[in-house]
Design brief:
Pfam families: ABC_tran
Shape: globular
Strand order of the largest sheet: 19-20-21-15-22-23-24
Protein name: Sugar ABC transporter ATP-binding protein
GO molecular function: ATP binding; ATP hydrolysis activity
Bound molecules: adenosine-5'-triphosphate
Radius of gyration: 23 Å
CATH topology of the largest domain: Rossmann fold
Distance between the termini: 54 Å
Keywords: ATP-binding, Nucleotide-binding, Repeat, Transport
Number of domains: 3
CATH architecture of the largest domain: 3-Layer(aba) Sandwich
Structural class: alpha/beta
Number of strands: 24
Largest sheet: 7 strands, mixed
InterPro entries: AAA+_ATPase, ABC_carbohydrate_import_ATPase, ABC_transporter-like_ATP-bd, ABC_transporter-like_CS, P-loop_NTPase
Helix content: 25-40%
C-alpha cells in the first residue's frame, strides 16, 4: 500500500462517495450519487446503457472532475491530481498495447525489474508468469504479443495487470464482457479470493447472473440517479431489471426455426485459418448460426476469416451460388454482401471523432446516392429512423460517437451492419456491454434481419446469448468444428460440455459429432 493511501488501522469504509455529480454540456450524467463500499465487500453497480456507470468510474479514476460531491478512499478525500494508487481499475477499453508482449504490458504498471542498470528481461517474463499464478490463472507465454491474444485473453490480462497492484479497492468495469462461461467461473473464483483478502470490489456488469455469485450488495443507477440499493438477497432478477429499466421487462422470446428449406446463403468448403484444421459448414437463408468455443479455441478466427478480416484459404467459399473465396479483405467480401460486426468496439467497430450519423453510414458506398444536399437530407432521415428504432440515446445524429455510452455505441454499430441489407452478417459479441432491455431489442433486430433472408453467423462468448438467439450452433475445439447442436441440444450446459470436450465420442441428443470435418 502506498503512503498516500495507507489503509493501515482504518476501520471505516474502503470507499465513500457523497453527492457525486457530473454534467456534460448541461446534461446530468450523474446526479448526487451516494455510495459506500466496505473492505472485503463486493458491490454490484448496474444500470441500463447511459445510466452513468462509466461516468462514475471515470470520476473515481480522476479522468473527470466532479461538479459536486466527494470521493473518499479509506477515509481520505481525493482531489484532482490526488494519488489514486489505492484504486485499481479494469476498464472496458483495457488500454493494452498490442505491439508489446504480455510481460511488457504487465511491467508497464508494476515497473521493469532491473539488474546492473539494465532491464532484467528474465524477471520481466517470470514476474508475468507469477502474476497470473497468484490468481490461479493459466498464463499465456509472457513473450506473446498482446495483439495476438484473443479478446478473452486480453480481458484476463487487463484484470491480472490491475490486480497485480496492491490496491484496497478494485473497480471492475464489465470484466467478463468477452469471456466464455468457463473463464467467467474461473475469474469469479479468483475475485472471491481477492475479496477474502479484504479488497473491496465495485463490480459493474450487464451480466446480472454474475452478481448473484459474487456480490454482497447492489446499487442501481438510472438516468444518473441512484434509484435502488440493498443486499443482493433482496433483489431477485425481476426486481433488479425493473429497477434498472423503470419498467418490467417482457420474458425472453426464443428464436423459432427460421431456416427456409434448402435455401443456402453460404457454403464454406475447407477453410483454413491460423494453421487450424480445415473447417466446412453452411449457413442457410434466414438461419442464425452460432459459433462457440472455449477461450483460444479459434472460433473468432472462423467468423473473421469468412468476413475477410483474417487471412485464410478455402477450397471454395460460395455465397448465393458465387465463389467469393478469392475476394480479399473486409472490403472485398463486403462488395459481395458479407458484413462484419467486430468485437473490438474501440479499435475496429466505431470511427472515433466521427458523428453518430457518420458511424451509421461510413464511406460513400453506404451513402444515399452520391452526395449533394438531397442525399444528405435523405441520410439524416435514415439516421433518425435507425436512431429511433434502435433507441440510441441521446438521439442526436451530430453527436461524436465517443460521447455515447458504450452500450449506445454498440447499438449504432449493430444498426450499421444490419442496415446494410447484406446476404450474410458475421456478428462478433453483438451485445457486449449492452443492457438487458437493449440486448433483447438487438436480438429482435437480428431475428428480423434473418426473417428477411439474411444468413447470420454469431460468434459470442455469451452462451446465454447463443442459446436465446441461434437455431444451430457449431462447436469449435482446437480450431476444428467438432460438434453441431440444434433444437433442444442448444442449452448452456450442453454447449459448455461440447466446447470443453476433445472431439466428441457420444453426442448428446440433437448434437452431431463432426469429427474429421
Ligand atoms: N464525454 C462525454 N460528453 C458528453 N456526454 C457524455 C460523455 N460521456 C458520457 N456522456 C453521457 O453521459 C450519460 C451517462 O453515460 P455513461 O457512459 O456513464 O453510461 P453507462 O451507464 O456507463 O452506460 P453503458 O452501460 O452503455 O456503458 C449518457 O447520457 C452519455 O451520453
Amino acid at each position: 500500500m502506498t503512503a498516500a493511501l495507507d489503509t493501515e488501522g482504518w476501520s471505516g469504509s474502503a470507499l465513500r462517495l457523497t453527492g457525486l455529480t457530473k454534467r456534460f454540456a448541461g446534461q446530468l450524467a450523474l446526479d448526487g450519487v451516494d455510495l459506500t463500499l466496505e473492505p472485503g465487500q463486493v458491490r454490484g453497480l448496474v444500470g441500463e446503457n447511459g445510466a452513468g456507470k462509466s461516468t462514475l468510474i471515470k470520476l473515481l479514476a480522476g479522468i473527470y472532475t466532479p461538479d459536486a460531491g466527494t470521493i473518499e478512499v479509506a477515509g481520505r478525500e481525493l482531489h484532482p491530481g490526488s494519488d489514486r494508487s489505492g484504486l485499481a481499475f479494469v476498464h472496458q477499453d483495457l488500454g493494452l498495447v498490442d505491439e508489446l508482449t504480455v510481460g511488457e504490458n504487465l511491467a508497464f504498471t508494476s515497473g521493469f525489474p532491473r539488474a546492473a542498470g539494465l532491464i532484467d528481461w528474465r524477471r520481466v517474463w517470470s514476474s508475468a508468469q507469477a502474476a497470473y499464478e497468484r490468481m490461479s490463472l493459466d498464463a499465456p507465454a509472457p513473450r506473446t504479443l498482446v495483439g495476438r491474444l484473443s479478446a478473452a485473453e486480453k480481458a484476463l490480462l487487463g484484470i491480472v495487470r490491475a490486480l497485480a497492484k496492491d490496491a484496497s479497492v478494485a473497480v471492475l468495469d464489465e470484466p467478463t464482457a468477452s469471456l466464455p462461461a468457463p473463464d467467467v467461473a474461473y475469474l469469479i473464483d479468483a475475485l472471491r479470493r481477492l475479496k477474502e483478502s479484504g479488497t473491496a470490489i465495485l463490480y459493474v456488469t450487464h451480466r446480472l447472473q454474475e452478481l448473484y455469485e459474487i456480490a454482497d450488495s447492489v446499487t442501481v443507477l438510472r438516468g444518473g440517479r441512484k434509484v435502488a440499493e440493498g443486499p443482493m438477497g433482496d433483489y431477485g432478477v425481476d426486481r433488479l431489471v425493473e429497477a434498472m429499466l423503470g419498467r418490467p421487462v417482457a420474458s425472453v422470446p426464443v428464436t423459432e426455426e427460421t431456416t427456409r428449406g434448402d435455401d443456402v446463403v453460404l457454403v464454406v468448403d475447407r477453410l483454413v485459418v491460423r494453421d487450424a484444421p480445415p473447417v466446412s459448414f453452411t449457413v442457410g437463408a434466414g438461419e442464425i448460426v452460432g459459433v462457440v468455443g472455449l477461450r483460444g479455441a479459434g472460433q473468432e478466427a472462423i467468423g473473421r476469416a469468412v468476413a475477410g478480416a483474417e487471412p485464410s484459404t478455402t477450397a471454395s467459399l460460395v455465397l448465393n451460388g458465387v465463389d467469393v473465396g478469392r475476394s480479399r479483405g473486409v472490403g472485398g467480401r463486403m462488395r459481395h454482401g458479407i458484413a462484419l460486426l467486430p468485437a473490438d468496439r474501440q479499435r475496429e467497430s466505431t470511427f472515433p471523432g466521427l458523428s453518430l450519423v457518420e458511424n451509421l453510414f461510413p464511406g460513400p458506398r453506404n451513402r444515399s446516392g452520391g452526395g449533394g444536399l438531397l442525399a444528405v437530407a435523405a441520410e439524416q432521415e435514415r439516421a433518425l429512423a435507425a436512431i429511433t428504432s434502435y433507441d440510441v440515446r441521446p438521439p442526436r445524429p451530430a453527436l461524436p460517437i465517443d460521447q455515447l455510452s458504450g452500450g449506445n455505441q454498440q447499438k449504432v454499430c449493430v444498426a450499421r451492419v444490419l442496415g446494410q441489407a447484406q446476404r450474410l452478417v458475421v456478428l462478433e459479441e453483438p451485445t457486449a456491454g449492452v443492457d438487458v432491455g437493449s440486448k433483447l431489442e438487438i436480438h429482435n433486430f437480428v431475428r428480423a434481419a434473418a426473417e428477411s433472408g439474411t444468413g447470420v453467423l454469431v460468434v459470442s462468448s455469451d452462451v446465454e446469448e447463443i442459446t436465446q438467439l441461434c437455431t444451430r450452433v457449431l462447436v469449435v475445439v482446437n480450431g476444428a468444428i467438432t460438434a453441431e447442436a440444434t433444437g433442444e441440444a442448444i442449452t448452456d450446459e450442453n454447449l459448455i460440455v461440447l466446447a470443453s470436450s476433445a472431439p466428441v465420442a457420444a453426442p448428446a441428443d440433437g448434437a452431431t459429432a463432426m469429427k474429421g470435418k
